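so my prof wants the structure for this chain in the tokens format not the other one, which i didnt know existed until like an hour ago. anyway here's the sequence
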Amino acid sequence: MKSLSLLFVLVSLVLGLDISIKKSSISNGRCFLLKSNEDGSKYVAFEGKRYYFFPTKNDFEHKFYALVPVNYYSKPHSSKIVAVATKDGKKRYKTFKVKVVDGHYKSEKLRVAPSKAKFNKKIRARIKKEAKEALKIYNTITPTAYWFEPFKHPMDSKITSQFGNKRVFNGTLKSYHSGTDFRAKTGTPIYSVNRGKVVLVKNRYLSGNSVILDHGEGIYTCYYHMSRFKVKKGKIVKKGELLGLAGATGRVTGPHLHFSTRVAGVQVDPLQLLKLLNEI
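here's what i got, hopefully its the right format
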């Protein structure tokens, strides 16, 4: 392990920038993680978009991190990530060859109320309006972090459905599972995975009673299908603070917690994201 670390340091010195990537191959719907010790770290460029470096929180071997989310609908392909930093008064670059591979997500068939599978004009308009409102939130990047501790799960319960599963509702409506489902009876407490700002508390057609937290630096966590709210919009909540109670509101087959995450506006695998965040 020490020899590999030494090799990385030598390679970094030759290339001029002390920046590394955790994995060069990931599945669609997940994140690349880059770490840097360059004080002039600026951003990384990936397929026409920029993702900025931020200070690490619990990683004392590196100064900065950058998360690069990959869209769930991205097809398997080879690409590159270019890290940009200013060093010795000059802008310098380090390129990483990367691959997006097929996540091989499972398929699920679900039965829901007919009104939750086939929408009339009025319902479609409501869903569109709610989606637009949410995207405006997700695309807002708070430059500083609200959190400084490791992340935790929103509850200690069995996971009943993983992120990315392909779904067919009532034999026709197709989508993918945009989060991770935790088994929960109605009334089960739901807690904040980390410190953050409550930016949405609202009943929505598909996700039911929903709470969204902004953790800063483009990171958002979402808690859906609640039976009751226990927080108000605008509040800064602590890690482990009660957000609400589990329920069966919205498009569901029964009571549970649907937990999802966003990075720089892109929906990503919650469990992989929390694991990465706990390494920075």
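also thought this was worth mentioning. The domain at 107-277 is CATH 2.70.70.10 (Glucose Permease (Domain IIA)).
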